[in-house]
């Protein structure tokens, strides 16, 4: 550890801005963030020469704060390269060779090379370690065949984090290996995945006799699961965890506004039932907000309690109920779907409010599936928080090839 | 809008109360007191008041109390709900204390509060009437003026710890609107009758007044805002009790699910049981958030207590009842026996949910607050 304190870190950030400034029209994202990386201010907890200064992760806030204070243009990791920065870089740092670290980390940070994650398969969702895409050794290369699914950003990506099976005779967690896949290699085919909203947020990625050099493996052969855990632990993109910090804001406001604009209750029995339902949902939404707030404050005090684990399950289930109620309040207006269902990529264009609600109604079904289904979340709560015993496992200590799986 | 912000001191208070109740109010003591005539152990009550200073927790020091606020009271109530403590705490330390603090004049506070804080005087609040509902509007008992004071004739019911109380605070219609009047526990014309309760751990009484002398608690004037506030505080305190009880149900259910073996494996390894426990965990955490939110807004003195108390009472009532019901179900046959404590929580859960209006009633109040 070097001993660079807050003051010096802020000075170094201002020195960077004197050399190159993101508000300068001649300086694009890649140019500015490249310079930020070279100054060790990309992620200060990384080693020197690899975008960091060997400091603690927490010290990054001083850099980010200076940038916010002095720049109108502030690049957001999530929009620059969400998966590459959030998950790819820490995994390369932990398991990559020196050569790989030098080659990949900088363009990940600048956004010149977008990364995606190739884990889920049609036959392996919750049980991702049971995946069946295969890599077979051929000289210095591996020949990969199989299909990946739910791959965000694959259509923009230069590289993918690929987990695939290299030894079907080992138990399922032991037969996996992890590769950095060049998405331009012959045999890699990306197709948009048409989803229930009409959009394609995700892709299917088909791998047909893709030849990957052994040098692109992260970690050792058979270590793929361990490396994957590093990737997943760094999953910054909090799914469903974030809620508005103000009481009554967020999706609940959509529901309350809809109800009030349509005149609220006329005193009929049907309206009394709906009013009770909306009050119940308001309560649940407020309690989600408060429970998340309690979780944050116990995180700060260093004693995370069970309140931190329930947020994902709560918000996924609640979000679905909120949008269901919105559609019920809309009544006849809920019969139409203005955006239409033609296959399209999600656009940055803002939908009008009613379209947003109808889209939200359909999109919310994924909340209890993505990032861990509600059933998996309940297993985790039961086992890790309440200490209940694991279910009986039929796939343990058996070669993967003998375990029943999808056809 | 007050944030939930517990301090180290709050956690110490929680630990002290929990330890005390583990020692002095274990299940055997609860079972002994719930069938006793008095309904509580005077020794434990005395310790609670004088050694721990809990009865006067929210009473200012100038009136003999500990000078803390509602958050501390809620911490104590959560632990008492968890332990099913049988004691006139809710009636004296919450209902009567706040009615006197907020509604009494200085003389009344000086006269009544020190004895309550010391645990030497039990006070109860009588609001609801046979045939009425939980709204203050339905209070019909009339106070007739008579030379220098008032006279009450009529009935009050579901009076928490009303039987054996030294002081009764009775809501009645006066010439200047709704009033709150003091009646001595041994006043002429007052008859009190313990009700046969579903929840044996909380005593309720039916009171009959026949030309019973009463004096206004504080300045004559409409007591509606005062009683509204007291009911909101009651809801906030009850929600804390409910959160504590629900947490205990979750613990009992998940402990049992780890131990109980059927089909060659602990039943907690079955997802049918595990997922029920996980849902219970989620609801219990949300119920705590609800109770804490109401407690912190009560302590801050903000107007939003009306909304947070309604929210807390609505949610905690449902969550506690579901936790207590699921606790029985997960225990199977043994959960249906008298010997197992599950039924004590189940009965407490249902009667707490009914005590100041059910969950739907409180959602209705909240909906009105929100302009729905």
Summarize the structure.
The complex is a heterodimer of chains A (407) and B (372). With 407 residues, chain A is an alpha+beta fold.
Q: How would you describe this structure in keywords?
A:
heterodimer, A: 407 residues, alpha+beta, Butyryl-Coa Dehydrogenase, subunit A, domain 1, Butyryl-CoA Dehydrogenase, subunit A, domain 2, Butyryl-CoA Dehydrogenase, subunit A, domain 3, four-stranded mixed β-sheet, four-stranded antiparallel β-sheet, 8 strands, 40% helix, globular, B: 372 residues, seven-stranded mixed β-sheet, two-stranded antiparallel sheet, 11 helices, 9 strands
Average the pLDDT over all residues of chain B and give the rounded result: 96
Total discrete domains of chain A: 3
The helix-and-strand class of chain A reads: alpha+beta
- The assigned structural class of chain B equals alpha+beta
List low-pLDDT spans of chain A: 236-243
How many beta-strand runs of chain B? 9
Percentage of residues in strands of chain A: 5-15%
Element pattern of chain B in H and E: HHHHHHEEEEEEEHEEHHHH
Q: Helix coverage percent of residues of chain A? A: 40-55%
Provide a count of the helices of chain A. 11
Task: Report the radius of gyration of chain A as a whole number of Å.
Answer: 24 Å
Shape of chain A: globular
Q: Care to count the β-strands of chain A?
A: 8
- State the end-to-end CA separation of chain A: 52 Å
The most extensive contact between chains is: A-B, 43 and 40 residues
N- to C-terminal distance of chain B: 20 Å
- CATH superfamily annotation of the largest domain in chain A: Butyryl-CoA Dehydrogenase, subunit A, domain 3
Q: How much of the residues of chain B is beta strand, in percent?
A: 15-25%
Strand/helix succession of chain A: HHHHHEEEEEEEEHHHHHH
């Amino acid at each position: 550890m070097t001993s660079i304190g807050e003051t010096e870190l802020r000075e170094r950030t201002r020195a960077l801005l004197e050399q190159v400034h993101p508000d300068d029209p001649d300086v694009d994202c890649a140019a500015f963030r490249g310079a930020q990386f070279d100054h060790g201010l990309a992620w200060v907890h990384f080693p020197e020469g690899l975008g960091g200064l060997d400091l603690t992760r927490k010290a990054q806030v001083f850099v980010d704060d200076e940038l916010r204070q002095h720049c109108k243009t502030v690049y957001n990791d999530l929009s620059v390269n969400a998966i590459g920065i959030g998950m790819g870089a820490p995994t390369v740092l932990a398991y990559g060779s020196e050569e790989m670290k030098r080659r990949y980390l900088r363009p990940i940070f600048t956004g010149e090379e977008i990364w995606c994650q190739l884990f889920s398969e049609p036959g392996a969702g919750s049980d991702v370690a049971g995946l069946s895409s295969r890599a077979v050794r051929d000289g210095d290369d591996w020949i990969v065949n199989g299909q990946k699914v739910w791959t965000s950003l694959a259509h923009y990506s230069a590289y993918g984090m690929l987990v695939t099976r290299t030894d079907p005779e080992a138990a399922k967690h032991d037969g996996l290996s992890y590769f950095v896949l060049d998405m331009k290699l012959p045999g890699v085919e990306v197709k948009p995945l048409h989803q229930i909203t009409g959009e394609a947020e995700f892709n299917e990625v088909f791998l047909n006799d893709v030849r990957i050099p052994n040098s692109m493996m992260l970690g050792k052969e058979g270590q793929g699961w361990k490396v994957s855990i590093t990737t997943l632990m760094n999953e910054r993109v909090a799914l469903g965890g974030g809620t508005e910090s103000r009481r009554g804001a967020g999706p609940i406001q959509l529901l309350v506004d809809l109800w009030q604009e349509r005149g609220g209750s006329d005193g009929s029995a049907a309206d009394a039932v709906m009013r009770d339902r909306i009050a119940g949902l308001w309560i649940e939404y407020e309690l989600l907000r408060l429970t998340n707030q309690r979780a944050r404050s116990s995180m700060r005090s260093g004693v995370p309690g069970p309140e931190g684990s329930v947020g994902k399950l709560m918000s996924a289930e609640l979000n679905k109920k909120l949008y269901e109620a919105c559609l019920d309040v809309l009544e006849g207006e809920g019969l139409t779907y203005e955006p239409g269902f033609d296959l399209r990529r999600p656009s940055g264009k803002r939908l009008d409010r009613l379209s947003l609600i109808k889209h939200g109604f359909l999109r919310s079904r994924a909340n209890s599936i993505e990032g861990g289904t509600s059933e998996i979340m309940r297993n985790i709560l039961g086992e890790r928080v309440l200490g209940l015993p694991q279910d009986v496992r039929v796939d343990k200590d058996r070669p993967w090839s003998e375990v029943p799986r999808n056809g | 809008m007050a944030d939930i912000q517990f301090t180290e001191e709050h956690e110490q208070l929680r630990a002290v109360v929990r330890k005390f109740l583990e020692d002095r109010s274990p299940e055997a003591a609860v079972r002994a007191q719930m069938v006793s005539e008095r309904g509580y152990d005077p020794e434990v009550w005395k310790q609670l008041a004088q050694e721990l200073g809990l009865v006067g927790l929210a009473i200012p020091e100038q009136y003999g109390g500990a000078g803390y606020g509602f958050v501390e009271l809620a911490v104590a109530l959560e632990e008492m709900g968890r332990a099913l403590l049988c004691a006139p705490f809710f009636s004296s330390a919450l209902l009567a204390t706040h009615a006197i603090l907020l509604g009494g004049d200085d003389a009344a506070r000086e006269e009544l509060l020190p004895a309550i804080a010391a645990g030497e005087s039990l006070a109860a609040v009588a609001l609801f009437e046979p045939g009425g509902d939980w709204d203050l509007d339905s209070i019909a008992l009339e106070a007739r003026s008579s030379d220098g004071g008032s006279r009450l004739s009529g009935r009050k019911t579901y009076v928490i710890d009303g039987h054996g109380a030294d002081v009764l605070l009775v809501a009645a219609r006066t010439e200047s609107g709704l009033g709150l009047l003091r009646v001595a526990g041994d006043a002429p014309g007052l008859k009190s009758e313990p009700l046969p309760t579903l929840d044996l751990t909380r005593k309720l009484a039916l009171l009959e007044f026949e030309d019973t002398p009463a004096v206004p608690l504080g300045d004559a004037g409409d007591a509606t805002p005062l009683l509204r506030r007291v009911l909101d505080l009651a809801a906030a305190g009850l929600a804390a009790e409910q959160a504590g009880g629900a947490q205990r149900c979750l613990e009992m259910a998940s402990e049992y699910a780890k131990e109980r073996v059927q089909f060659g494996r602990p039943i907690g390894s079955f997802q049918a049981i595990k997922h029920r426990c996980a849902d219970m965990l989620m609801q219990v955490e949300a119920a705590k958030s609800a109770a804490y939110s109401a407690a912190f807004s009560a302590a801050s003195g903000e107007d939003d207590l009306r909304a947070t108390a309604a929210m807390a009472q609505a949610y905690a009532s449902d969550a506690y009842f579901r936790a207590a019901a699921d606790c029985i179900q997960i225990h199977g046959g043994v959960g249906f026996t008298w010997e197992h404590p599950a039924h004590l929580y189940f009965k407490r859960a249902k009667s707490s949910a009914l005590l100041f209006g059910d969950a739907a009633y409180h959602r209705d109040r909240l909906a009105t607050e929100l302009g729905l």
